[in-house]
Amino acid sequence: MRRLSEEIQKCRLCGLCSGRKNPVVGEGNLDAALMLVGEAPGRTEDEMGRPFVGAAGQHLDRLLQHIGLDREDVYIGNVVKCRPPNNRRPRPEEIEACSPHLERQLEIIEPGVIAPMGNSSIGYLMARFGLKHAPIGRIHGRQFRADAPWGVVVLFSLYHPAAAIYTRDLERVMMEDFEDLGGLLRRMDPPSI
């Protein structure tokens, strides 16, 4: 992971690198059973070089704590490692350019559960594992089994933590989805929480 981090620091595969302060590689437990994958760093993440440290990150921390997990128990990353201008969604060509970094992270961590958060990460990961993509409103909280080079993996689609900040009605839905995610992790052999 250290070598990958150094490569990401030097990466110039897409134009996002020109506006970044810091690439955001990801952080957490390299042996995690759960890998959370967001879309792209925001302003605070770009400044600090860490994933999910702004308001959405605080909300994510609360959701994890709700199911008995801390950041140190999981691995948190993004599909793209540099902040898009004005926090726009990453473009398909930016995701394609950055995807080898995410692929290497997945191969290093070998998670049993991958939780894409938000449409960009859900779209990429569903396609990557040969699954049919659908809008987040239809597939949030659902489990999709897929084959990975390291074994069977479960994709568990989640709303992006920022969604509840902008749409308060989603808070309860997100809590329920995380409770289901916690149940999945407890049923794993061995249990992950």
Could you please describe the fold and organization of this structure?
The chain is an alpha/beta fold. It has one domain: Uracil-DNA Glycosylase, subunit E. Helices cover 42% and strands 14% of the residues. It is built from 8 helices and 6 strands. It has a 6-stranded mixed β-sheet with strand order 1-3-2-4-6-5. Strand 5 (143-148) and strand 6 form a beta hairpin. The longest helix has 18 residues, at 92-109. It is globular, with a radius of gyration of 15 Å. The two termini are 24 Å apart.
The residue ranges in which pLDDT falls below 50 over 5 or more consecutive positions are none
Radius of gyration: 15 Å
Largest sheet: 6 strands, mixed
Strand order of the largest sheet: 1-3-2-4-6-5
Number of domains: 1
The CATH class turns out to be Alpha Beta
